[in-house]
Amino acid sequence: MEIFLTVSALTFSALFFAGFRASKAADRLQICIDNGTIDFDGVTITIPSELPVQHKIKLERERYIYLNAARSLFRGAAFLRLHQKHSAN
């Protein structure tokens, strides 16, 4: 019984952390979309080539985390929906 509770607690913690990290990545990407740092046309996330290398690396990492979460376990989750710049949402 103790093993079951331990495994359940670890699984819950891992899922919570993954969801929290994906939500944070989506929030950061949405802020960049609203600021005009990156382009989002409703389907693709495009990072301009004129950004400094460090910023591009950070944005690529956030995009990678967001896309992995959006395509797998958290598919269709409301907290992972990105909106275009100047949208009413």
From TrEMBL:
Q: What is the name attached to this protein's record?
A: Uncharacterized protein
Organism of origin: marine sediment metagenome
Q: What is the lineage of its organism?
A: unclassified sequences, metagenomes, ecological metagenomes
